Amino acid sequence: MQNRGYLRVREIVAMILIIVGIKLSDSTPALLTQNVQNALWLVPMISCVCIFPSFLLMLYLLKKYKDKNLVQLLEEILGTVIGKIIGFIIFLFAFLSIALDSRNYVEQIKILYYPEGPSGLIFLVLFGVVFFGAKKGFEVIGFSSFIALPFIKVSAFFIVFLVLGNLLVQRIFPIFGSGLSDILIEGAAKASIFAELFFILIAYVSTRETDIFYKGSILAAIISLFEIVIFYFIYITVFDYNSVEKIAFPFHDITQFVSFGKFFSNIETIFMVFWLIAAFLKFMILIYLATWIFGAVFNIEDFEPLLLPFTFLIATLGTLPFNSIINELQFRNYLLNAMTPFLILLPVLLWLVALLRGGLRK
Amino acid sequence: MIRKLLLWLLFLLLLGGCQDRIELEQQSYVITIGIDATDQKGIYALTYQFANPEVGYSASSSADEPPSEIVTVNGSDLLSATYFANSIVSKQITLDHTRVIVVSEEVARSDNFLRIIQSASRTPEIRRKVEIIVSKEKASDFITNNKPLMETRPHKYYQSMLSRAIQTGIIPKATIHQFFQITEGDADLFLGIYATTDQSDNKDDEMEEDQYIAGEIPQKGGPPTQFMGAAVFKEGKMIDILDGEETRIAQILNTTLDMDSFITTIPDPLMPEYNITYHYSQTEEPAIDIQYNKDKPTIIDVKVKFKAEIVAIPSLIDYTQKADDRRTLENAIVKRVKKKTEDLIEKSQKVYRSDPFYWSLFIRKHFKDIPSYEEADWQNNIYPNANINVEYEIDKLEFGKMINDTNLNEVRD
Questions:
Q1: B100, B143, B212, B230 — which has fewest CB within 10 A?
Q2: Predicted confidence band at B184 (pLDDT cuts at 50, 70, 90)?
Q3: Which of B177, B222, B215 is CA-nearest to residue B194?
Q4: Could you say which residues from 246 to 285 on chain B have a Cβ atom under 8 Å away from some Cβ of chain A?
């Protein structure tokens, strides 16, 4: 394991901002808006309210049981066997969400920029790069994320700036979209759009002091929520509710729509570069984390050689769905709905067990 | 050694990214797409105007080449016909730089317009900024006859022609983006650009300046193309044409359309045989206040503040110094623009039964959720029955750089 505890707050923040924040640019908004119409921008807030207490509870437990990562904590509290089973379930969730996302991202690249290239080849190139990146180890990924982050965020901010003139703020009304109950249900059901926050807990002991991780993850979670809300707000006010639910990739529709003055009109390729870097980093981080969880569950100390088979498996699974719309609106929908109760309840369960066993009195 | 070689071979995979590589030279850039009906249902005659990249820069040696090439083929949607057109055009046809889609009035008025234009939103090639022009004649005739003299390169021509005409308000800004937002929103009317190269025979020189639609403007010299007025679309189908003046008023009242300013005339209130010319400009967006009543008619209060700058007073009446006359003039300006506005609103309520002002945006906040908003039905119920009060207010009345005009009596002494 190439991990010497050199990571600081900024790398943790950068990684979380990339894996959670990139949800603003894929087809997650298209998935959410199917049920809530123009209340899309409220959904992440509700989701965050639902899942954030659980996340804090998890961080609290990790702090109490010092120097343990996610899976070790599970084993400590629930016993080895149950702990490992739950750890494996978390691994499956992480693995499946990467696999489904992978198809989604490949389709975005293919439809918008490489219409002639076959999906398989894009998969191969994308995951080839991701594998080489992930193989470098967690700290290198962290540093790269930190270096790339300013560029990614500046380009995102630039899009916001360019699209400002096309917003019609009145479009957020009627404020509750398809109905208050609908958005509350959808917000709660899709709370797992923040699932990556839990996956990264496997890296809890990778920083020099765990306190750093604690601060960094909370800060990053709040910033990424903020970004997601801003972008969802933009999608609603630029496209209106009837249109946004028809658009599969609103982020790319916006980059194609904006122009920089009269002379520079087709400028989406500039944004595509930074988006692509973010996508590479997202998959590197997530594949590394998933492999790490797997390694921790099966007591494989040196898990990095597993990266190659896992990358291969993910790319293979990703190519299976018939098309990207089924992939997004059905499979990913099921997965998000299934992950939510698990992720919300697991920390509560852990806390209760720890409380009864007296583990918190240290 | 073999390992190293294999590693190098792996890099070859990255070349897969070059699959979509295409040289600029191998592409033909479409600037204008024209849509016409054919006798067959579902098949359209699609006209593509390609820019000639060799025209327009000084180093060009082929000065005799025309600035564009025009091809018409049949096809069922915008994209499939580009492949068919390749039997005539030598290069790969690229729609990335399309500026305008010209639709013949015949197609725009048919039920099928929405079907054909829909394909524009599915392909990533056609941008949402593309403007929709409705031509009185066949779109292919419009594109062929449109031979601008000064700005021969088509993309520049459309860019400057449209942006200037939009600034002056005689045509609306009409992008595909707006078309889909409004049509899918299913509440308001979309205004498309109306243009023609077909000069009408019944030209009326007597009409006031802006009450023309394209093709009726008396003109001598210059290219035959006229852009004037707006095609009114209801639920994705063209139903009527607004003249230049109505288009302007619609844009004054529509907060989502930007119009800079325009110069217009009114009869001199004291000597009606002369006209007074003034420069209308709007400093702030109109305030639209909707009082929604569930059972009674909804009340819509609209307040427009504008600035008027008098440009010419051919009657030579001394409006600047005499307070009473100035007030008469102010009232005359306000009364006239108000009257025009009320006429347009009445027409939209009675004839169109929907509004071209995108006011449905302002009623949304009175509803908690979309089902109740859709049930209240802006288009069929709220708007046609609403009581609408429009107030115009002159914020500033300026008189240009002269204090007084020439005193006629002194000159003719």
A1: B212
A2: confident
A3: B215
A4: 256
- Residue B227 scores a pLDDT above 90: no
Q: A124: which chain B residues are within 8 Å (Cβ-Cβ)?
A: 13, 16
Q: What is the pTM of this model?
A: 0.88
A253 vs B128: CB contact, 8 Å cut-off?
A: yes
Chain B positions in Cβ-Cβ contact with residue A241 (cut-off 8 Å)? 370
Q: Choose, out of A130, A131, A242, the residue to mutate when testing the contact with B (most B CBs < 10 Å).
A: A242
Is the domain defined by A9-361 classed in CATH 1.20.1740.10? Answer: yes
- List every span in chain B annotated with CATH 3.30.300.210: 260-413
3-state secondary structure A308-359: HHHHHHHHHHHHCCCCHHHHHHHHHHHHHHHHHHHHHHHHHHHHHHHHHHCH
State mean pLDDT over B363-378.
86
User: Would strands B68-75 and B44-51 be described as parallel, antiparallel, or unpaired?
Assistant: antiparallel
Please state which CATH number belongs to domain B260-413.
3.30.300.210
Domain boundaries, chain A: 9-361
Across chain B, mean pLDDT equals: 83
A128 touches chain B (CB under 8 A): yes
Q: Give the one of B124, B181, B362 whose C-beta lies nearest to A240's C-beta.
A: B181
Whether the pLDDT of residue A362 is over 60: the answer is no
What average pLDDT does the segment B44-49 reach?
A: 90
- Asked if the interface predicted TM-score (ipTM) of this complex is over 0.85, the answer is no
Cβ B13–A124 below 8 Å, yes or no? yes
Interatomic CA distance for residues A295 and A69, integer angstroms: 12
- What residues in A contact B367, CB-CB < 8 Å? 173-174
Residue linked to tokens 């600081």: A8
Q: How close does chain B come to A241, measured CA to CA in Å? A: 8
Inform me whether the C-beta atom of residue B181 falls under 8 Å from chain A C-beta atoms: yes
- For the beta carbon of residue A260, count every other beta carbon within 10 angstroms: 12
Residue A54: the pLDDT is 92
Is the predicted pLDDT of residue B382 greater than 80, yes or no? yes
Specify the 3-state DSSP secondary structure of B319: coil
Most confident of the following: A34-38, A218-222, B11-15: A218-222
